[in-house]
Amino acid sequence: DAKTTQPPSMDCAEGRAANLPCNHSTISGNEYVYWYRQIHSQGPQYIIHGLKNNETNEMASLIITEDRKSSTLILPHATLRDTAVYYCIVHGSSNTGKLIFGQGTTLQVKP
Amino acid sequence: NAGVTQTPKFRVLKTGQSMTLLCAQDMNHEYMYWYRQDPGMGLRLIHYSVGEGTTAKGEVPDGYNVSRLKKQNFLLGLESAAPSQTSVYFCASSTRDRGQTQYFGPGTRLLVL
User: Fold this and answer.
1) Which tens digit of pLDDT belongs to each residue from B26-40?
2) How far apart are the CA of B20 and the nearest CA of chain A, in angstroms?
3) What is the sign of the dihedral through the CA atoms of B8, B9, B12 and B15?
């Protein structure tokens, strides 16, 4: 599975959009981009995933560049409860379901 | 549905003691996983299972054993606990489809003295 690079930390004002970047320049054609988050030492929570096209669900949007070497997770209206560590994970070259977690980005939403 | 549950929530062991952590899921998922998370670190995969009666090693398997006798349960055993195994342990489950989402339990905090 390809390696990902994320900034260690970011701040965002409450009510504003949070844009979390992720680089995955070695991604292969059959690998998905997943985003999970972990709030205050709870179990990680799935947010969204995509292969090639941009995706949107009730939690967030995922924008994947055309060359698929980077992506951005967008939380459209961040709240204090969105303060968490966000993990970008590239996965799919095998079918065992294993996820490789990096250090993630700590997002601090401020009032 | 309860999703993924873990037992116990917290445990203190002395060096050399043994214990078993239980993970249960009610979503009929084929795949199950055990991760550990040390302070300030991301999760690391210990062992995983792609089906009942089948287990495999992950990234950091040493000092742990697992069993998957029933589809809904995945047990993680520590035969002789060491202080280096002080960590938070998370269990997860998923379907076997490509693009599958993993669902995580609330975690078990283990302290080995």
Assistant:
1) 999 999 999 999 988
2) 19
3) positive
